[in-house]
Known about the structure:
Blueprint: E1 25-37, E2 45-46, E3 77-81, E4 86-92, E5 100-106, E6 112-116, E7 122-124, E8 129-140, E9 144-150, E10 156-163, E11 170-177, E12 182-192, E13 195-206, H1 219-227, E14 232-235, E15 265-266, E16 282-283, H2 289-298, E17 302-307, H3 327-341, H4 347-354, E18 365-368, H5 375-391, E19 396-400, H6 408-419, E20 424-431, H7 433-438, E21 452-460, H8 474-489, E22 494-499, E23 503-505, E24 516-518, E25 523-525, H9 527-536, E26 542-548, E27 551-552, E28 559-566, E29 571-578, E30 584-591, E31 599-606, E32 625-630, E33 636-640, E34 644-651
Parallel strand pairs: 1-30, 2-14, 14-17, 17-18, 18-19, 19-20, 20-21, 21-22, 23-24
Antiparallel strand pairs: 1-26, 3-6, 4-5, 5-13, 6-12, 7-12, 8-11, 8-13, 9-10, 9-12, 15-16, 24-25, 26-27, 26-28, 28-29, 29-34, 30-33, 31-32, 31-34
Helix pairs in contact: 3-4, 8-9
Bound molecules: alpha-L-arabinofuranose.
The site of alpha-L-arabinofuranose has 13 residues, from loops.
Amino acid sequence: MKLKLTFFLICFLFAGVTGVKAQSKTLVINTKTTIAPIQPSMWGLFFEDINFAADGGIYAELVKNRSFEFYKPLMGWKKFGEEYVGQFQIINSQNENNPRFLRLESLQGKELGLVNEGFRGMGVKAGENYLFSIFARQSEGVSALKVELLDSTDSVIGKTEVKNFSGELKKYETKLACTANDAKASLRVTLSGKGALEIDMVSLFPENTWKNRKNGLRADMVQKLADMKPGFLRFPGGCIVEGHELETRYQWKKSVGNVENRQMIVNRWNTEFAHRNAPDYFQSYGLGFYEYFLLSEDIGAEPLPILNCGMACQYNSCELVPLDALDPYIQDVIDLIEFANGATTTKWGKLRADMGHPAPFNMKMVGVGNEQWGTQYVDRLKIFLEILNEKHPEIIFVGGSGPSPDGKDFDYLWTEMRNLDVKLVDEHYYRSPDWFLQNAARYDSYDRKGPKVFAGEYAAHDKEGKDAESRNTWKSALAEAAFMTGLERNADVVHLASYAPLFGNVNAWQWRPDLIWFDNEHVVATPNYYVQKMFSTNAGTDVVSALVDGKALTGQDSLYASATIDSKTSELVVKLVNVAKKPASLNLSLEGRKVSSGEISLQVLINEDLTAYNRIGKPEVVTPAETKLKISGKKIVLNLDAYSVTVARIPLKK
Ligand code: AHR
C-alpha cells in the first residue's frame, strides 16, 4: 500500500520531561483498516457485596441489623435506660422471611430504648434530612416513640417522634433534620411512658440518595460508577453467588419484592478470613436484583447477573446439587429472564412492574456459575445449557474458567467451554504487577474462532501496606494499564473486562486491592480507577493496528500501546503506557486517514513514585491531568514521561 503521511509537530511537555533525547521509535497507525469493532459494553464493572460494599456501603441504609435477624439478634444495638425498668424480648413470629421482632416493654414509665451503632458509625451531614421508618404494633398503651440522631459524643443532632400506634403491625414514616456533620453518629429510639411496643425494620436513610429514591443508594458512590460510563454491571458477585454452603448462596428471588419481606442471609465474607473477621456482616438484600437492574439502567450499563449453578464455593464446603435435582436452579435462571425481560402479564414480569418498572430491562447476558472448576462444573453447566439455550436463544449464557488464568484446570475448562459452544468465558486473574506486564500479549494468540473472553475479575496485587488503600499502588495501576492495551488490541476476542472487586470500606474490608475505597463520609478513587476510567471513557468504536517495526508494542523499551478509531467523533484514540523509570519518545506515523487541524485532547496519569496511592484524607496523589494541544507543524512526537499512562484523542479528517 502506498503511504500518504501527514505529519504535525506536537510537543507534549509534562512536568520533568524536558530535554528528552532518546532515539525515537515510530509507531505506525493504520487509520483506514479497522481490525475489529470494540464491543460498546467492553469496559464494565464487577460488583460484589464484599468489603461492606452493599450493606454499610452503596446501599444507603444507616441502621445495621434493622430487623433483628443477625445470628445475635441485638448485634449492632445497645440497650438504653436504667436497669430493671423494662425488658427487651426477641420474639420469633414464625414469619418465614422476617421472623424476629423486638418487644420493648417499659414497666415503670421510665425511659427505655435502643441505640443502633450503624455500620462503623453512621455518616450524617448538617442540613440534610433523614427518613426514619419503623414497623410497629402497640401491645400495651405506649403513647410515642422518641427518635434521636446522636453525634459521636451522644449529643442530639436531630430528632422526631412517632405516635398514634395501633394494635395492627404497620409501617410508620417520619423525617428528621440533622444539625451537624458526624461520621460516627448513632440512632436512638426510646419509649415514652409505660407500656409495650413491638418493633421491626427500624430504618434510617438519607433523603438525598442517588436520584432521591427511597430504599436508595449512596449518591456519591454511584456517581463514581456513572462517571466511568461502564459498559456492563456484573452482579451480585463473586463468591457470594456460591455461598459457603448451598444454604447461604445468593438467591435472587429472596432479594425482590417489598423490602420487609426479603429474607436476610449471612454474608459469606463474614467469617472467610480469620484475620479480617466481620461477625456483623450480613446481607439485608435491601440492595436486591431489582435495584441492581435499576442501577445498571441508570449508569448505562448492560446488566450481567451471575447465578448459582448448583455448587457451593469450592474453597469452602464444595456442596453439590445432584445432577438430577438441578431443576429449581435452572428455573431460577428462566424466571430471572422473565423478571428482567418478560411481559407484565407474566408472574415475574408483573413483579417487576409492581416494583415500579413496567418496561423490560432488556437483559442480554446471564452467567451460570461464578468461579467453578472441574468435571462437577462442566457436568452441571451442560445440563443448564441444554435447557437454557433451547428456551432462550436470545440470551448469551456465560461460562467460567475457574480461579486461575492458566494451568491444567484452566485448560480443561476452556476445552470444555468450546465443546459446549459457550459464547463467553469468564477468566479471573489476581496476579502480581509483573504478571500483568508479561501478559500484555496474552490474547494475541487466542483462538479467533472459539468462545469470546470475559475478563471478569482481575487486579494487579502489589505488596500490602498499613493503610487499607495502600495496595492500590501506582505500580499496580500502571501494570493494569499496560495489560489493558492488550485487551483492547484483541477486542475481537475479548468482549468484556472488569476490575475486581469494586468497593472497599476502609473500616470493614476483607479483600484488597479494590477499585474504590470509602468510609461513611468519603469516596476515594484509586489510581486503578482512573486507569479503568481512561479506557472506558475513551474506548472508541474500532481497533486499528499500531505497530513499531511491524510489531504491536507489548513491552519493547517498556512501552505498551493500542489504538482505536472513534467513528462517532472521527478521532483516533491512542493509549500509551510507559512503565520505565525514564521518559520515552515516540514518533507517530498515520497511514490512511489524515489528521485534521484543531486540537488534540490529552489525558495523562503520572507519578514518579510507584508506591504512591490515593487514600481518604489524601485522595489526589495520582489523578489524571487533562490538556488540549493545538496541532501545528508536521510531525507528531510523543514524549512520554517515566511511569505514565497517556490517552491522546487526535481529530481525523472525515
Ligand atoms: O473478587 C473477590 C473474589 O475473588 C470473588 O468473590 C471471587 O469470584 C474471586 O475468588
